[in-house]
Amino acid sequence: MTRSAPVDESKWFTTHCDLSAHDVSCERDDRILFENLSFTVKKGDLIQLAGPNGAGKTTLLRLMAGLNQDFDGEVRWYDENIQSCFQDYARQRLYIGHLSAIKKVLTPLENLRWFVSSWPEVSEDALWQALEEVTLAGYEDIPCQQLSAGQQRRVALARLLVTPTPLWILDEPFTALDKAGVAWLEALLALHVNRGGSVLITSHHALSDIPALRQIELGVQK
Amino acid sequence: MSLVTATIKRDLIIAARNPGEWLNPLMFFLMVLALFPLAVDPDPKFLSKIAAGVVWVAALLATLLSLDALFKADVEDGTLEQWLASGESLYAMALGKVFVHWCISGLPLTLVAPLLALMMNLPDDAYAALFFSLLLGTPILSLLGAVGAALTAGVRSGGLLLSLVILPLYIPILIFGASAVYHAGIGMEYAGQLGFLASFLCISMTLTPFAVAGALKLNLSR
Predict the structure, then answer these.
(1) Is residue A13 a contact partner of residue A119, using CB atoms and an 8 Å limit?
(2) What pTM value is reported for the model?
(3) What domains, with CATH codes, occur in chain A?
């Protein structure tokens, strides 16, 4: 997969990312996952949450995305608690969990159309182009249940190409992708960071090629 | 197109491609009404006396059958997570979801009930009452049922729990619905019962989406 059409970067998004965690602590089943964690995600940052299974990577990601309010501390978007400006925040970040939200009886195009329905400015042409770029051209009218796991993941990831948000929050996006897919996604992440976007990602995949990379290690304290 | 209308449209497409899911409760309804006269006294006078109650009980149980699946798929495939992440009103979303559920369960029941009531020898005067009581009553069943479905969406075998939670709430609807049809059958006024159903519909339409939204949020914040 190669980038076919260059994206007009000046129009891609209007605001930049300014997300910060302040003394965030989280406990699950009497086990402390992380304590007093503070960090910021700014323009051009690529932050990878690392750590062993069960270290709380997904939990941290979900609470940064505003999906989980069961924690101590505060997450702020432009110095405002994300829960009090949630609608604003939600339009500026794209969250893709490890559940892909793909409906199996629908075609890739129909799934994609639903994903971007909050962004009315996204054109139908852009959806076709995105599907073409994730090498699903020709599969537009085939129900997703007939696609492989990797192809379904690509449908979910095609959203990255069409949704104009500065912040991407991605939970294990490399799952089920083949080698070409991994290379494509790495290139896409680098491109997003270079054009001033920000990425918060959990992955066991080494992303060392991207210079902007910072890592936050979870699950080290016992 | 906003996410809510996109979701309504998408769910209707899914229902159209998966007719088995919503035809099953309808078949159940048909079978109960077809088998009842065979199992009890087939005397037309006796049947016409119990017709109102049997049709309403069958409609209620058919609705209950269809409720289990209302949010389950959305929780399991991550669709619900995306709703929550979108920052759009969960209230409107819940209302949209119930609307689709009613379109594929309550509405067909209401439309076929007068035909099937023929088999139960429903008195001639009662057909209008049957149609209107179901037209007002089945949306209430969907709305109340959605609360139970949202509460039990994350539970592995929530079907039993769902029935236990919802059945007590259904009893007033059943009593007023069946009594409207019965009273129409013996030539009495039935506007009072329909009035009660209508007011109950208004109340549940405004209040239950809050409960559904709350329950769904609870499901995801683990």
Answers:
(1) no
(2) 0.88
(3) 15-217 (3.40.50.300)
